[in-house]
Amino acid sequence: MAEIINMPRLSDTMEEGTVAKWFKKVGDQVNEGDILAEIETDKATMEFESFNEGELLHIGIEEGGSAPVDTLLAIIGKKGEDISNLINKGDSKISNEDLKEEKIIESDEKKPNSILEGVEIINMPRLSDTMEEGTVAKWNKKIGDLVKEGDILAEIETDKATMEFESFYSGELLHIGLKEGESAPVDSILAIIGKPGTDVSEALSLISNTKLDNNSENKNEVKPEKNSKDNSDVIDESKNNTTEIVTKSPTNVNSNGRIIASPLAKKLATEKGIDLNYIKGTGDSGRIIKRDIDNFNPQNGRNTQSFTPIGLESVTEIANSQMRKTIAKRLSASKFSAPHYYLGVEFNMDNAIEFRKQYNSIPDIKISFNDIVVKAVALSLKHHPEVNSKWEEDKITQHNHVHIGVAVAVEDGLVVPVLKFANEQTLPQIGKKVKDYALRAKSKNLKPEEMDGSTFTISNLGMFGIQDFTSIINQPNGAILSVGAIVEKPIIKDGRIVIGNTMNLTLACDHRTVDGATGAQFLKTLREYIENPLKMVL
Question: Can you give the pTM of this predicted structure?
C-alpha cells in the first residue's frame, strides 16, 4: 500500500520547508534509511531520510519549491501502483498557498503577543515524518547552563530511534518543560532559552493562558472561588504545611498518570493503608512527601477505611517507551503477516571449542562463539541467497550482499545493529564491531544508519543459559536464527557414548520466501562451517 510522505518539521520553529535537492527520482527504488532529499528549514539545510521502502511513485514538491509542514512531499509504494486517488485528494483540500496562510495564522494564534523580549520557546520537534510524540531520554544541559547555538540540548526518543536535538539559540537555559523519561506530543513546550537571569514565569503564564483561550472546553470550565464553602477541596488550616484532602479527582499525578510521591511517603502510606489518590502533596511540583502522610487525617476525607493492612494489592505501571511501542508494532506485524515455520538442529561444538581456544592463543586476539556463528552464517548465506531474501507483493528480492543484524538486549527492549558485508570480514573484525555495537546500543549511542539494511538476523541467548528458543522474524528479512547455549552432555560418537558439547539452533523462516527444503540446505551448509571451523579461514 502506498505511503504518503509529508514535509517534516525538522526544527522546533519550522513552519515550511524548501526542497534543496532530491536524491531520488520518480521510478527509483527507495530503501528504509535512504536519503530522500535535502530540506532547507528556517535554521539549516538538513538531510531527510526515508522510513519506508518501495518505489518513488510521486514527487509533490520539485527542487527549489517550498511548502508548509505536513504538505504532500512524496509518495512511496509498489511498482505500478495506482496513486491517482492520493494525489487527487489535494483537489478537495485547500491549496498550498491557503494552507501556508492557515499555518501562519495558526502559528500567530499559538504564540502569545507579549512574550518577553529575548526569550525563545523551544518546542518538542518532529524528528521523523511519523513522529507524534517524543520522550526526553537525556538532558545534556541543566537549568542555569549557558547554551550556544549548535549545542546538543537533549536526546529525544522518537518512534524510530533516539536522536540528538541541537539548540538553534544562544543564551541561558531558563526552563525545562519535560523531565528525563517524560513524553509529550510534538509542539509541546520542551524548554525556554533567554538572557541570563530572565524571569520566565510571565512567559509561562502567557503560554498557559493562550492554550486555555484556544481550548473551548477550558473556556466553559467554572473555576471554584478560593474561599467558597462549596469548594470540594477540604482544607485544614490549623497548620501552615497542612495536607490538602482531595475528595474528587486526584491532582498529584504527572503527565503519564502516575502519582508523584517520594519512596518514603509511598512506604509509609502502604504501612498505614492510606490511598495516595486522596492526598495532595506539599513538596516540589505537588510531590507527596513524608510530612503529608504524617499530617493526613482520614476523618476529614473519604479515606476512612481501617488502617491495619491485611494483604495489599499493588501494581507497578511502566509507561511504554517509544522503542517499546515500535517493537510491539513491528513484531506484531511480522508475526501476523509472515507465515512462520521453524527448523531446529543440534550441532557438535567440540571442534569449535578447540578452534576458538587455539585462535585466542594468538596475542591480542579474542573471539567469541557468537563471532564464529556470525561468520559461519554469513558464508552460508552466500551459498543460499534464497534465505538471504525478503518478500514483496510483486517479487522476491534475493540479496547478493550479506548484512547481518545482531539482536542486542537493552534496558528498554531490543535493538538490532547491522554488521554490513559480514562475509568479507575476519573473525577479529567481526568480534570488534559486534562488541562496539553492543556497548553503544546499551548507552543509546547507535546511529540510525547503523541499524538499517539488515538482510538476515541472529538472536543469541546462549549467554543467559537458554538452550532452545524461537524468534519472530525481523522484517523485511526472510529468516532469523536463534542460537542457544553450549551444553556438555552424553553424545554418540563413532558408535560409543562419550561426553561432548552441543548447541541448539532454530531457524525461523518466512514460508513465502524460504521453502522447507531450502532452509534445511542452508542449515546443512551452516553445520559444515561450525563443526569444521577451519573452513572459514582457509
Answer: 0.49
